[in-house]
Amino acid sequence: MLRHSITRNTARSRAQFTFTHTKALPPPKEKSKDRKHQHLSSDLINTLINKLDAVESRLDLINKCQETKKRKSTGSSGDPPAKKDTRCVFCSASHAAINCTEYVTSGSRWERLTVLRLCPHCGRGGHAPKECFKKLRKCLHCQKHHLTALCTEQASESINATANQ
């Protein structure tokens, strides 16, 4: 049995590698064959060291990613992340689009959406409604494919409810 012990000092870490070959080398018959086995074993050691370096760098990367995820999910102080501020699609104030007091009617909301060139499915710009990833979202009132704040049936229901009072 042949045993090699190698110590490597790198900027990242200090590691000690011990390799054990379970197959015994054949008895030295000729010097040329003995040199060949020495060369093979040093090549094997170098290959293994390179593979261990690659594994070590991958582990470092995985650890960094996990630490970053922990910091993002808990925040730097360990507190849970703050709730995202809701912005109105129509007037950009800090309220939900359904509660907009500047654009009250569904007609004015549709008009504003057209002027701002926003998608009726998600309320964002930069894409056509056909390309929207939320194009299957349904209105809570009429089950059609648009933001609930744009619903014309909701507006007529609220007008009827006000008239009945």
Automatic annotation (TrEMBL):
Keyword line: Metal-binding, Zinc, Zinc-finger
Composition bias type Polar residues, residue spans: 7-21
Source species, domain of life: Eukaryota
GO-annotated molecular function: nucleic acid binding; zinc ion binding
Region called Disordered, residue ranges: 1-39
CCHC-type domain residues: 119-132
InterPro entries reported in the protein's UniProt record: Znf_CCHC
Name assigned to this protein: CCHC-type domain-containing protein
Protein's organism: Caenorhabditis latens
